Amino acid sequence: MKYFNLIWAALFRRKTRTLFTLLSVMAAFLLFGLLNSVREAFSSAGHSVAGASRLITISKVSFTMELPQSLYMRIQSVPGVGKATYANWFGGVYQDPKNFFANEAVPPGFFDVYTDFELPTAARHAFATTRTGAVVGASLAKRFHWKIGDKIPLQATIFPQKDGSNTWTFDLVGIYHIANPRERQQEDALFFNWKYFDEARQFGNGKVGWYITKVAQPKDADRVAQAIDAMSANSDHETKTQSEDAFQAAFVSQFADIGLIVGSIMGAVFFTLVLLTGNTMAQAVRERVPELAILKTIGFSNRSVLLLVLAESVLLLAIGGAVGLALAELAVSVIRTQIGAQIPMVPVGLTIWLQGLALMAFIGLLVGVLPARRGMRLRIVDALAGR
Amino acid sequence: MSPLVEIRNLSKVYTRGRQKIEVLHHVNLDIAPGDFLALMGPSGSGKTTLLNLIGGLDSPTEGTLSVGGQRIDRLGQSALARWRASNVGFVFQFYNLLPMLSATKNVELPLLLTKLPAAKRRSHAGVALELVGLADRAAHKPGELSGGQQQRVAIARAIVSDPTLLVCDEPTGDLDRQSAVEVLTLLQRLNRDHGKTVVMVTHDPKAAEYATHTLHLDKGTLVEGVVAAEKAAQAGS
Amino acid sequence: MRKFGIVLAIVAAAIVPVIALVTLPAWAILVGIALLGAWLALTRTGRQAWSATAVGIATIPQRLGSSSVVVVGIAGVVGVLIALLAMAEGFRSTLQQTGSDDTAIVLRAGSQTEINSVVDSDTIHVVAEEPQVMRDARGRQIASPEIVVDASIPKKGSTLDTNVEIRGVGEQVWELHPRLRIIAGRRFTPGLRELIVGKNAAREFANTSIGSKLELNGEPWIVVGEFDSGDAHDSELWADTNVVATTYHRGNSTSSVTVRLTSARLFDAFKAAITSNPQLKLQVQTTSTYYNAQSEGLTKIIRILGTTVAVIMAIGAIFGALNTMYAAIATRTREIATLRAIGFRGVPVVVSVLIETLLLAILGGAVGAGIAWALFDNYTASTLGANFSQVVFEFRVTPALLAAGLKWALAIGFLGGLFPALRAARMPVTDGLREL
Predict the structure, then answer these.
(1) ipTM higher than threshold 0.85
(2) Where are the alpha helices (DSSP H) in chain A?
(3) Please, what's the largest Cα pairwise distance for chain A?
(4) pTM above 0.95, yes or no
(5) Which site among C323, C384, C389 would you substitute to test the A interface, given the most A Cβ atoms closer than 10 Å to its Cβ?
(6) pLDDT digits over C155-192, tens only?
């Protein structure tokens, strides 16, 4: 640490150049933070803790095909099943299709399976007893300024009511929270009473979109899944049961290869950054040759000089990178509160910071190594003589 | 008393492309502890090369060189660096201070290589600056100091780790007369009062007068070794 | 404080040309370049500027490393920008080509997409009987009742199921898609469980080549032909709508009805006739409106994403260019001072530094555009479309996108070169000459 002053002073020897370089580094790591937040949101769709112990049962034909509700009792009787529930995708629109959020019809038991959705007991009771009751996640409520007691009208896109009307109106009876910030995009959803839905819809009555099963012992998951599918084998509603993680991962991968897109952009960004900071470091060392020679004259070893230049280059990356990542963290939290689930993003958390710091260190060493070797190898006698 | 610097049959050959240039040719020289030696000679005579060898900045091609009883002619680069850190102080014509550091921080530099704690480093640097009469300029950066002041900061840096040997290459070469006198008087004081052995390359006879001995180099060999005092006596008679 | 004010004023003044660069059409910029060329060639100051530029360019090889920062930095911005916009453009144009103004699609009111829609057989007949619907040579209405269902088929080389759209089509469907060609095999035979596969689907999805047997809802089907429609339907598999209805237990209902109108001008009348009928709860759109709406959301998101990424990268590139050009004029201090000393005025010096930066920028822009074009033009990608099924599309690197990329390059170069250019012009002659 005693060398810190020396490194710091060397870094800011040319204030303008260092500032410009820092701003470039900052821009690169701002992008790194933003893009990684999006990428993690997509990839974490398949890696939640709760999702591993939940099974999703869909129609083998396609997840857009519905299954008979009669399967519910039979699934519950499969050995190893803890609790089971089901849901229907409603696909309703609130005011404008741009206001997209998930809305599903579920029975009250849904919240016994999704225990990570924290819903107050009173609200759960109200949901079970209110025919037109609905609950929403906290971020969604915040986005549309909803409070308990509000009436929320949704325009059906799939399910008209029996009288042909497309307008379904729900009474908001509860707001749920999700503690884990990485799962919080699931707060952007509305759930309403399945019984009301099934009685009032024009067609499809007695059918559910998918079943969700919580297995009693996670190690039994594969066996339970096979048992559930075996019940419907060779029927007209064959099922496919997989873990919630696997289901979501498959679904997300259908949108796009986010990893490839983000990877390509980051590749271009960091290739440019390496060249840019590398050039700055080369210039910095070139014009400081006499000073480095002095340090060596005083008795700094070759290794010390090498480490000084490397430390300077890593410090350059670390300052710019940390500011950039901090900005990304800020930007992500603003974006998440302002536009909700339309662009999936996870908060810039520990993982992204660790990846970022590793990248800063790596690029810092990479761009520092050539100039540092030049500094290390310079001959004092030549450098002092201006050769 | 055994000499501080003992030079035997010392040669230095530089290779520039295919050409070999012998800059020093079988030099023999003893420098006693507490000496203030001026090295003079025309440019290209090898005086700076000799000084660099004595200071351990460069290694000879042939011959032996010991300082304070230690052979330094065959030391490797890192061993030489460690040796320089504790045994030699350097003063150059163009001061060679680090422009982005304050005077104190510049003086402190050699102490970074020691195990001294930060507070001790600061107080040592303060003492050294006090000694060169610049305690009131401690926080100034080199750009804010005059040439003479910068050179005194450089001298403070050279003595801060308390080396026995000071190696000075044209220390007054870039200074006006007044500043040069200040610097030379300072070197003389360090030599007389603090027992530093000083080796100084200069082309200025007036500067050489401050030394106790003057040696002349020409084409890589010592041409005469006359004690300055004798020379002065001859001139006076 | 005063210096800060000057910098602010310059920044404000610099914004105007940058906005002009980004918003002006390509021809206006070409005219601008031509005018600049004329000024360089014809006026005294211009000729001075040109000789100063030539001196600057001649020294570029000596500072290749730092000059390449400008080129590579801008190439990165332009490459990423063009690649992302090419994705949006490819998706948009694929869906846009799918629709036309003289065909109309009828869905159940409120359903937005075919997969959500149900239309019963009585309604199909009422719609087909409307007078605006065109009839073929034998007097039959050109109307295709269509069923859209999703089948789970993995992509080639993958085990993950993806949703592939199976479209049951009516007998008259060929009249609705005049551009569609069977490129291998034959059409399906009405009444049989036979499929034809779109060329993109055949390329992307496993087990969809001619002769392949597929199981749909438990029944065996066979692929007998491959078609090329040059639009989003290329991602689908088609079969006889009645047979699909049987396989999927749809009875007599379908998802939608598509009709050809005798003229695009009659669409309003057709729509009015259907929506005014109190018996029918339907929504009527031209197919071009329908498919354009499907591309809007994703296209917008990709464009916003692409522009945001490019803006952030551009900020980085501008600072890189500033560093490079400041370093360039620093190493050329003496040379610039000499030019000033022998009588060159400020303007030519400013212009020469700017031109040099812009030339490097254009080179970077061209490199970035070239890489984006080479890597991504016709690059195939797929995403989940409105019917929860895969839409395969190709990236399109259009000339307009290339021009946009070069405009960005010029804007970045302008901002990166302006301040160093002004510093070069303000540099006192004597200081410069003293600097050795």
Answers:
(1) no
(2) 4-11, 15-43, 71-76, 110-113, 121-129, 138-144, 194-200, 221-231, 244-253, 258-287, 289-298, 302-339, 350-377, 380-384
(3) 96
(4) no
(5) C323
(6) 888 887 888 999 999 999 999 999 999 999 999 999 99
